[in-house]
Predict the structure.
Amino acid sequence: MKEKIEFWFDFGSTYSYPAVMRIPMLARRHEIEFVYKPFLLGSIFKKQGWNTSPFLLNLSKGKYMWRDLERICAEEEISFNKPSAFPRNGLLASRIVCSFENENWIDPFIRSVFRENFANDQDISSSLVIAQILRELNLQPDEIFLKAELLETKEKLKLQTERAFDCGIFGAPTFRIGNELFWGNDRLESAIKWSNKV
């Protein structure tokens, strides 16, 4: 039996965008299940001594990253529009995923949030943007927001972020199979191959 692949991501992570958009097709092709694990990448950066994204700390690296992401999305035929603000805060969306992780609408919700950020240049920290995504999925935003704001939900995301750090995760996207880590969109296929071996 194939191992499930944990997909650790942050909604503001650039390379998580093409990864999350490629997962459905690859999951079907290889008959493998992905488990979505949102975490707060900013908290991980702080533990590494950074106060923001390394793509902002190193301007040359940031310039390369945007061009690289543009090429990747073009090659994969994924819509892309460089966000006018970076990184955007995906806290609300992450809490929603943590709170409703077993619902069948979570997969399309996650991809819609990423699409709004990296294709439509919408502010995903806005409850109005998230509410619109939920309505498009025929859901009631107010009920979902209430659960997402519960103390237990906030604590769950906090603990999940701490677990990411304890597992050795330092960036996003990261794919985890057992104790094996695969970092980056370009390691997605490697993670799938590994899952077939264990």
User: Anything to note?
Assistant: The chain has a mean pLDDT of 96.
